[in-house]
Write a structure and sequence with these properties.
six-stranded mixed sheet
């Protein structure tokens, strides 16, 4: 099997995102010899900040000498971003070899009337890769929700983590912050420890604390009063917390809060006996990186990629832009998936833009048409354009740019690859 054939097979699996539940995954893990039981996990749920928090956790563990696995979704530029081993994308030949082992078992599942979805397939593939590579620790990002997400097939993790929570996937998770937080806190199990984002919505924080109290799970949440931000620009932040100084390369104030969540995870893992020297924590935080999070891909004009696709993420992006580039005109290249809450997310950026370019993230039926987004954005920005292709939208932004403008491509992760090409190939 070639790598291209492997991708074709994976993407041919059924989607059916509403097929929630752990029954198929539990059966699949049994057939595979339980690869999910081979090492400890940091399991991360939340609406916003999961990927960044996961990247920082993995980097800290790796710098402390642990061989790591990192599982995130979605990917931005390369499918193998989803399955990483010790800080590197999974080897193509290894991925293909493991998938060849997995396919006969998936065929058995289908014959039993339990056909696995694409996300279940990728999750199982990752777990098999980590078992094959004998990693010491896996940082595991939830797909949707938590309680019924297929990643929750793992045993109680060493630490369950709740990042920022906002309204998302309301057709699946519920219509209130409380209901969504209940689903996400479903990854917290008796016998684990927990860490939480220090800027949680009050309703989500109540659910988190009540869940931990009910299950007798120790919880760590950073104290914002002990935080002092010393320096911040688009190369990252330097801050002091608890008398110690740290640097992160991920820009934006929200990333400082995500780093505090990682420090809470470190506190909990140390309490479990894991060796995490302070020097490794500092090095790991500073070295961590992740694609598509306020990522500067061109300096002149300034061109930025960000995967902000819901109101909470768009709020964090806009706050970062206000802080990092005060008073500078913005040109937005924006594309959204129709199922996301784009009506509440888009105005936050559009009202800040000198020009707004609506694009269609990809060719799937789930993508919001560029013309529909452009018509909506007209109420919030006077100069609006529509381009079906993200690459063309990025090129148009460059044509419209004036000295001092900041160009921001955001919305669905699916548009970032094309936008990057448009920004950098011109």
């Amino acid at each position: 099997m070639t790598y291209e054939q492997a991708l074709e097979y994976i993407h041919s699996r059924i989607h059916l995102g509403t097929r929630k539940g752990l029954g198929r995954m539990e059966r699949l893990m049994e057939k595979l010899g339980h690869p999910e039981r081979q090492c400890p996990f940091v399991h991360i749920a939340g609406s916003n900040g999961k990927g960044s928090t996961a990247a920082m956790c993995e980097s800290v563990l790796r710098h402390a000498g642990y061989k790591t696995g990192l599982f995130v979704s979605p990917y931005v530029f390369d499918f193998r971003e989803r399955i990483q081993v010790n800080g590197a994308l999974v080897d193509r030949e290894l991925m293909c070899a493991v998938l060849e082992q997995l396919i006969p078992v998936l065929d058995e599942m289908k014959a039993e009337g339990q056909e696995c979805t694409e996300f279940e397939t990728v999750t199982a593939l990752a777990l098999m890769v980590y078992a094959r590579c004998r990693v010491d620790f896996v940082v595991f990002e939830v797909g949707i929700g938590g309680l019924l997400d297929c990643t929750n097939v793992i045993p109680p993790p060493a630490c369950a983590v709740l990042t920022a929570v906002s309204l998302e996937h309301t057709n699946i998770l519920g219509n209130t912050i409380h209901d969504i937080a209940v689903q996400k806190c479903g990854i917290i199990k008796p016998g684990c420890r927990a860490a939480g984002y220090c800027g949680l919505h009050p309703e989500a924080e109540t659910v988190l604390r009540d869940t931990c109290r009910r299950l007798e799970v120790p919880l760590a949440v950073a104290d914002k009063a002990r935080l002092e931000v010393l320096e911040a620009d688009d190369a990252g932040s330097r801050f002091r917390y608890g008398g110690r100084e740290y640097r992160i390369a991920l820009p934006g104030g929200h990333q400082v809060y995500n780093a505090l969540t990682v420090l809470s995870v470190v506190e909990q893992l140390r309490a479990e006996g894991f060796d995490l020297p302070e020097s490794a924590v500092c090095r790991g935080l500073e070295a961590a990186s992740i694609a598509g999070r306020l990522q500067v891909v061109r300096k002149e004009p300034k061109c930025i990629l960000d995967g902000a696709h819901n109101p909470g993420k768009m709020d964090a992006l806009c706050a970062a832009l206000d802080s990092l580039y005060p008073g500078r005109p913005l040109i937005g290249v924006v594309g959204m998936m129709a199922r996301k809450d784009w009506r509440h997310a888009v105005p936050q950026l559009a009202c800040r833009c000198r020009a707004f370019i609506a694009v269609r993230p990809d060719e799937s039926e789930l993508s919001l048409p560029a013309e529909e987004l452009a018509e909506f954005a007209h109420a919030h920005c006077a100069e609006v354009y529509a381009c079906d292709d993200p690459e063309d939208g990025a090129r148009l932004a460059l044509q419209l740019a004036r000295p001092g403008d900041v160009l921001v491509a955001c919305g669905s992760m699916y548009l970032l690859e094309g936008a990057k090409k448009g920004f950098t190939d011109a």
